[in-house]
Design brief:
five-stranded mixed sheet, 161 residues, alpha/beta
Length: 161
């Protein structure tokens, strides 16, 4: 009986911790939902470039311009590596268009309870390691983005992987 109580309490702690970690963290969408996201917001035929950062304003139902996204992101971190991230990974999304309703239908995982939805179209871990020789800061930039996005309190953050 004593072991069952301990197991029950541990299960409860893990469940509660998981809920808090997921609410304040980053949700990976996977390749399938990434495809659904791009299909919904863009009619472009060219494959999107990645790594990429896109920011969607839930209130105005519009993606931020590259300049507005960089302005918002510049307030989140002051490391020189963060400046590299903004210059290289924030992409122009002026051609993206959707509504909250259509976006939610296309990607049901998205949570519209915060001011912004941030999507980080990133590389899977094995690819990061493969490209590390060509770009020594790639893994560090990827880690920095995930770290910063996981701490946002006015945005729900998503990655591909």
């Amino acid at each position: 009986m004593h072991n069952k109580c301990i197991a029950f309490v541990l299960f409860g702690i893990v469940a509660i911790t998981s809920c808090f970690a997921n609410a304040a963290g980053i949700t990976p969408l996977g390749n399938h939902l990434k495809g659904a996201l791009y299909s919904e917001v863009s009619n472009q035929t060219v494959k999107p470039q990645f790594p990429a950062l896109y920011i969607y304003d839930v209130k105005t139902e519009q993606f931020l311009s590259k300049q507005d996204a960089e302005s918002y992101l510049s307030t989140l971190n002051d490391q020189p590596l963060w400046t590299e991230v903004m210059q290289q990974w924030v992409k122009d999304s002026s051609h993206f268009s959707t509504t909250n309703k259509a976006f939610k239908q296309a990607v049901p995982t998205l949570d519209f309870t915060q001011e912004y939805i941030v999507f980080f179209d990133n590389l899977p871990e094995p690819m990061l390691e493969q490209f590390a020789a060509m770009d020594p800061n790639l893994v560090a930039r990827d880690s920095l983005v995930k770290s910063v996005l996981a701490q946002l309190d006015n945005a729900n953050s998503y990655t591909t992987y």
